[in-house]
Amino acid sequence: xxxxxxxxMFDPACPTTVMPFQIGDKWTAMVLLCLExxxxxxxxxxxxxxxxxxxxxxxxxxxxxxxxxxxxxxxxENPPRVEYSLTPLGHSLLKLLDAARSWCTExxxxxxxxxxxxxxxxxxxxx
Length: 127
Description:
- The protein is built from four helices and three strands.
- By secondary structure, the protein is mostly helical.
- The chain has a single domain (19-119), classed as Arc Repressor Mutant, subunit A.
């Protein structure tokens, strides 16, 4: 028999409570990849990230800035210019992201098959 889960297993000081993004958060990982080659403006980011709304992209960028993954540089020009770039901390996540992408590539068939099997099974009753 498996031991029960402890109610205090996620201590407030636990590192998982400060993770900069959730596993599966699609926009943060995509923004990291967009900024890998250097600074980008908001409108440049919107090109490959066309499925994200401007509001959600702005929120993602703000949370990434809050977590120290990117910097926002505003230039006093006419018209004003703002660029986003990766910090050293943000760059350090690229190796982890590459590993996750490799894992997904290796296991894509298994993931697709599992999702298809889940969708095809009869609906469960109760909980």
